[in-house]
Every structure is written in structure tokens, then in C-alpha cells.
Amino acid sequence: MTRQLVVVVKSDCPTCQLVTPLLPRIDARVVSEDDAAGLVESYSMGIETVPTIVVLDGSGREVERLEGWDAVAWERVTGVDGLGEGLPPHRPGCGSKTLDPGVADDLAVRFGGSKLRARRVEIASIEDEIEAMFDRGWTDGLPVVPPTEARVLRMLEGTSRAPDDIVAVVPPDLVECTVEKVAINAVMAGCKPEYLPVVLAAVAAACTDEFNMHGLLATTYFSGPMIVVNGPIARAVGMNSGHNALGQGNRANATIGRALQLVVRNVGGGRPGEIDRATLGNPGKYSFCFAEDEEGSPWEPLSVSRGHAAGASTVTLFAGEGVRGIVDQLSRSAASLARSFAACLRTVAHPKLPMSFDAVVVVSPEHARVFREAGWSRPRVIEELHSLLQLPGSEIVRGAGGIEEGVPEAFADATLPKFRPDGLLLVHAGGTAGLFSAIVGGWVNGATGSQPVTMEVEPWL
Question: How many CA atoms within 13 Å lie on the side-chain side of 259?
């Protein structure tokens, strides 16, 4: 079948200027990015560098492309001997005009905007975009990024999923949420496109029956979704698992967690003071997301301990309240440090309330070193904590210690565990200096509460 050649050039490219005098000797169709039709055709072909030779077979299917100038390769493809005579053997090309700031967005909207299904909201020319979004109730109390068509299309480049794929049914209004809707809220949260697969997984996990996002919204308790990210994607997108891992300053940590909260608010209708009935809430309801420090951990990753393959990228969602500190700067034995952890863990929700609340212990590197040196595995640490957190009924019944809170008198002669068997999770994160760890208490567990959920992130490359 007859081959066809297409050469794409632009006038202000020095390499294009070098090869333009050769084009009359080549049996090729020339496309110039200097005119509107040529720019559109270049965009449709996905040209990133000029000059580019695209080789098409007789049916118009691309079989090869050459970018920049390479004398030997050009002679081979064109079949013209001596084509590069008197010219340098190699010369890199220039960036295509289709990638220029503004031009790329305009072309994307012009040719890709039709795949977006969300309602367009027109903002008057005299309106401030930021204030307009506040006025419409789309924010979490902080400014959000205006989700223009161009920004949403760029965000969608972070996933191979179709914009109209259903990710989850989002409570409390039980609205079907598409990839596009997640992308819109990811833009508003300040995410980069490469974060989108993590946000999609977090949304899907949050909307499972096990996690019970509806119940978590409706409770008057403090808790909101906490996201722990494991696997290669955490490093690929630059998440923080070290110094200040639970704090501010890292874009991926901050915006991934925020995007989930905005989806729940803007798609599902979960707004504070309405279905969100928290008495006090906690600052983590803006965003609570961090990565586990796997490389420095004495244990297998959290995701592996929860049944996923080593090397898988995952999100684990936990209904977490605020962070409370564990200070133990003197323990050098694992047994002593475990007792410190247990003493602090007893206070989750209330020292006299057993089994109702789960907890995550974020173990810092310096505390983790103590367990590593003692050879304590993750299961060994958890087993020791459970054994130390068996609560005598006489201490936790109502009225004991002069405190009316507690369990019914019928349990006075019993011994009750502080946590259910699967109610403790260990995560390794934090800076390498400071003998401090942290507890994140959970919301009620069981059929009426929330279970931790771990879900794999779909491939992002």
C-alpha cells in the first residue's frame, strides 16, 4: 500500500527553518502551525515537537514519526538520497505551538469540552470568581480554585477512566458521582492531575457501606475521614510521610484530603449545620491525608497488613478524630514503650468506655526504632497493646472513680477489652527527631459505625 508523509513545521523554529528548503524535494504534505487550520491538525495528531515527520500507511494509520532533524532517518523515511547534504547530522526540534500557554487550553476546550457533561455556570464579568463560589456555597470555608473547562480537562488527563464513569454513590443525598465530578472538585481543592487516581480511590472507599460516610456525617462526634496512602504512588506524587506528615505544607497531602471533603459537600450535599451535625468537629475535616513511611518502617506496610499485595498503591480510610500526642522520651525497651502507648490509648473517647471506638497509632521513627531493636513485629506490638488494655469492670462501671460515665453495673465483675480485635491500626510516619507518636481515635465501630476500608488505587501511568 502507498505510504503518505506529513511534515509539521512552524516558522519561528530554527530547526524548521533549516529543513524548510528541503521540503520541495520531499513527496509530503506540509502542515504549518502558523495558520489556524494547520494548528488544529497538529493538535489532532498530538504533535509535541516540530519539525515532525508522520508516516501514514495507505489507510491513513500512523506507522512512524520522527521528531527534530536527523539526516540519516529523514533520508530513510523520505527515500531521498543526499537530503541532508551540507546540513548538521542532528538538530533538536522546538516545542509545538499546540503546547504554548493559553493555546493548549483553548484547543483542549475546543476539541475536548464536548466530553464534559457538568452544568456550565456563567459568572458575570464584574463578579469575583472566588467570591462567587463562596456565595454559591461550594467552598469549605477557604478559597477554592475556579473549575474552568480547561482546568477540568487537564485534571482528567490524570486518569484513563472515562469522564462519565460512575465512581460512587455519594451520601447523604445518594448522588451518582462521575469521574468528571471528582475532577471538578479536585481542581477546586488545588490538586494536580497526577493526584486524581488517589482522590478517585478515596471517594470510592469513603462511599462503601463499611466506611459509612453517611453515618459519619450525621454523627455529632468529632470524626471525619482520614486517608493513609501506601505504595509507589505516594512517592510518585510527592506525598509527605516524614517531618510534619500530619500537618500543613505539602500540596498532595493537603489537596487530596480536601478534594474528598469537597466531593462529599458539593456532590453529596454533606454540609456542616445540615446533615453534618458535629458538635465540635476537628480541623482534620478540612483535610486529613498523609503517606506511610514504608522505607523507614520496621514493619510491612499498613496495606500489606490489611491483605493487599506488596508494592500495591492503596488508600486506607479511617474515621478519625483529632490527633493526640504520646510523649515518652525515656523508654528504651519495647515493653516500657508499649505500656506508655497503652496508657495513652486507654483515654480514647473516655478511659471507661471499652470496645466501642477504634484507634490508629502513628508511630514515629524514634519510637519505631525501639520496637525494631527489640524485634517486635507489627502483630506483636498490637498483641501486647491488647493485653495491656484489658479493663477491670470494677474500674469502668458507672460511678467508679466518682465518674458517672461508664458501662452498666452488670459488668462489674468482668474484664473488658478497650478495643475490639481488629480495632487497632499501626502506621509508621513522622520526622526522625523527637520521641513522640500520635493517636487518632475513631468513631464508633460495628454495624452502626465505621470500619476502616483499604482500596487499591487504579494504575495511574
Answer: 36
Domain boundary among 80, 100, 120: 100
Q: Are residues 233 and 380 in the same domain?
A: yes
- Write the single-letter amino acid at 347: T
User: In this structure, is residue 183 part of a structural domain?
Assistant: no
- pLDDT at res. 454: 98
Q: Is 179 contained in some domain? A: no
Beta strand 436-444 with 314-327 is: antiparallel
Contact 270, 285 (CB under 8 A): no
Residue 318: CB atoms within 10 A of its CB come to 25
Read out DSSP for 98-129? GGSTTHHHHHHHHHHGGG--SPP----TTS-H
For the segment 401-424, the average pLDDT, to the nearest whole number, is: 96
- Grid cell of 51 as nine digits: 519539525
Listed residue (324, 315, 270) closest to 290, CA to CA: 315
Instruction: Indicate the pLDDT class of residue 165, thresholds 50, 70 and 90.
Output: very high
Distances (CA, A) of 164 to 112, 160, 170, 183: 14, 12, 15, 11
Beta bridge partners of 315: 229, 455
Whole-structure pTM value: 0.87
Burial 435-444 (b: 16+ CB within 10 A, else e): bbbbbbbbbb
- Which one of 52, 69, 100 terminates a domain? 100
Round to whole Å and give the CA distance between 316 and 302.
8
Say if residue 459's pLDDT is above 90. no
Cell of 192: 494536580
Task: Give CA–CA dist 45/339, Å, rounded.
Answer: 65
Range of the domain at 239: 195-456
| Ranges 103-117, 154-168, 245-259: which has the least confidence | 103-117
Report the half-sphere exposure of 171 (CA within 13 A, side-chain side): 16
Residues 223-243 have pLDDT tens digits of 999 999 999 999 999 999 999
Counting the structural domains of the chain, the total is 2
Query: CA-based diameter of the chain, in Å?
Result: 99
Residue 126 lies in a domain: no
**Rounded-to-integer distance, Cα 263 and Cα 269, Å:** 9
Non-local CB neighbours of 279 within 8 Å, separated by 6+ positions: 220, 221, 222
R_g of the chain, CA atoms, integer Å: 29
392 within some domain = yes
Between CA 29 and CA 3 the distance in angstroms is 12
Residue that the C-alpha cell 453495673 belongs to: 409
Return the closest-CA partner of residue 168 out of 383, 453, 459. 453
Per-residue pLDDT for 265 more than 60?
Answer: yes
Helix (H, G, I), strand (E, B) or coil at 78: helix
Q: CA–CA separation, 136 vs 121, rounded Å?
A: 11
